[in-house]
Every structure is written in C-alpha cells, then in structure tokens.
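QA checklist item 7 of 12: single-chain prediction sanity check.
[x] sequence parsed
[x] length recorded as 244
[x] structure emitted
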Amino acid sequence: MSNTWSILGATSSMARAFGRAVVARGDGVLLCGRDMDDLKASASDAAARGAPVAEAMAFDARDANSFAPILKRAEGLDGTVSVAVFVGSMPPQEEIDANPDLIAGTIADSYGGPATFLTAIAPMLEEKGGAVVGVGSVAGDRGRLGNYVYGSAKAGFHTYLAGLRNRLGRSDVHVVTVKPGFVDTAMTWGLEGMFLVASPEKVAHDILRAVDKGRNVIYTPFFWWGIMSIIKSIPEPIFKKLSV
C-alpha cells in the first residue's frame, strides 16, 4: 500500500533529509511550508528520484486557513497518509525578554499550529492509517535560562503528542516524539555553546528507524538521553543557579 507524507516545515535541513529518505523508500511527499520557490525545487527533485507523489503546498503554522488545502489533498490520496512535523521558531531568549510580543509567534510555530493541524487530520489518519512524527526538542525537557519560552512551547508539544499517541494508537496509527539535541540547521547556526552537533541525515535515519520499530519517544543522537537525564535530575535549588 502506498504512503504519502505531509512534511510540515519542509524547507528545514532536517525535513529535507527526511524527505529524501522517505522518497528513497518509495513514499510520496507533500512538501509544506512558506517558501514556495524552495518547496517547488525540492518537489521537482523528489519527482526525479521517483516519488509517486511530489507536490509543494503552502503552509504557515500561524495561519490555520493554510491547513485546509493540505488536508483536502491528503484526503484525495490513495493509500495511507502520514505526517512529519518539523515546524518551530526559536528567537534568542534575550530578544523575547526585550519584546514579549515574540512569545505568541514562537508558541504558534512550535506548538499551537502543529497541534491544530494534527488534530484536524487525526480523523483521516484513523480512517486511512499512517504514522505521525512530531519533532520537539531536548529544550522541552526542562525550563532553562537560555531558551525557556521555546522550551515551554516544545514541552507543550511533547505532552500533546503523548495524548495523540494514546488516541491514534487505538487505530494502529503510531506517533513518534523526536527530541533532537544540537543539529546542524539554520535555527542553530551561530549559537554559542554548541557541541556534539549531529547532521540532518543522521537525525532522519534515527527518525525512520523509530517509525519502523514503533518507538514512542526518541532522543537523537541517542546520547542526549543520558545528557538530559542528568539535567533533569539536578535539584531545583542547584539548577536555578546554573547558567544553562
């Protein structure tokens, strides 16, 4: 049975790598995002690689009106439909502190918009089958001085995905929560303190393996599970004095 992925935020480095990986497996792709020229180029590349479906579609996490055409196109596809969410924005915390109006957009990009889209497509997934990949972040595991607004949005998305996993699991639709550490992307370019940076291709490989194995939550690269276990275990009186 054919499968087509709606990839939200398809212009990101991780999404590009994931898209190439699923096309190599014979899946189709609806590449969704805001930069239509970029998306159309990626769709042409996917078609050249043999994707049975390769289309560019407009998506803006802050504009729910952009969701309907994607949902309609997915409904008309044969086979199963799957969704991979790579959407998010991370303004520097100091910019948010100076301009709290940035909070609403950060939450819409990193949690609210993706959750609204997934809730809208959930009945279709229950009917047609498929899978969901939700890309969160290790930043959502604990509020930290350096990015607590972005981290709180991703923490909310993690909790949403856990509930969605409970719902869709009753229809044999699996939901994977992905918590990447530092990845070589435009979002992290130029940030200080970066270490053990993973390639987008490595992350895409880990995600697909998690889908195949029915994993619920993964850290990628895997060693971030250990790092975050230590960070989460630090007592709050000590943690709040740290500059992390």
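[x] summary fact logged: Confidence is low (pLDDT under 50) at residues 187-195.
[ ] second reviewer sign-off
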